[in-house]
Amino acid sequence: MGTTPTDQSPAAGGSPSKPDIVCLGEPMVEFTRRDPFPADAPVYQQGFGGDTSNAAIAAARQGASVGYITAIGDDAFGAALLDLWRGEGVDTAQVQRHATAKTGIYFITPHPSGRSFTYFREGSAASRLTPADMPADYIAAAKILHVSAISQAISTSACDAVFQAIDIARAHHVLVAYDSNLRLNLWPLGRARAVTHEAMRLCDIALPSIDDSRALTGLEKADDIADFYLRAGARVVALKLGADGALIATAAQRTVIPAYPVTPVDATGAGDAFDGAFLAAYCRDGDPFAAGKRAAVVAALTTTGYGALSTLPHAAEVDQRLAAWK
Hints:
The protein is of the alpha/beta class. It is 38% helix and 23% strand. A ten-stranded mixed sheet has the order 1-6-5-2-9-10-11-12-13-14, with helices on both faces. A four-stranded mixed sheet has the order 4-3-7-8. The model is unreliable at 7-15 (pLDDT under 50).
């Protein structure tokens, strides 16, 4: 594969070598178009993206011990991502550097009805991950493995790698969290349905969004979608409802958590931030409803600036917001 592990040491800023939450997927470097263009700043604001990378950082900012499994290019973008994770305290012991494949990048154009994306990720280092690249001991030592459908959509080998990671986690009683993040520019709906439904059958914590779930399940109502994923096998469903908040459901209880009030600027990464914050809180306390409320605050605050990470809050700010939110 032409990859080598990164040299992670305590001095490099990583978290312990057996993190509680392990995320797997494709990181990317993002460029967000500023509209209207500011006179004193670049037209595109450079940041970082990739759904599971965003979630890993969100979890770390909420105080969780987090590690990341991926492959990046031996290029400037890959080096920037390593610096980012180390600065955030995300363990990079299982990040591989690919000698020939590149790190993926993408461009975001916000507009009144949402955002449009332009990707340069074909053949990326992460898309070349295979089941043989999955570190069994690292996954087995975690409390939660977090994966997503995007990681399965980028290539057949990456899809198989995610299933291999899930199998390792389940064999060692590690909880599996899954976000069905739907990107129809990466694969057709029929394949997306087949793969995500199978992954949901194997997960413990389902983290879908309402729009994606409607396309994947053919159901409209939030309660019906929650029931669908509970019947599939999840013990907890945290269904993201966008401006309407989130529905948190278990077999015994469910509640809708309203959206935390903010003035949104850019929703990039909000769902990923929700995932990471939810998993950090659930890993610590085991209360999905308290985790959902914290995640709602984190996701909302993330929308108040451009890009996935620029306004992603730390735990202390979230604690203050929660204390004042009635």
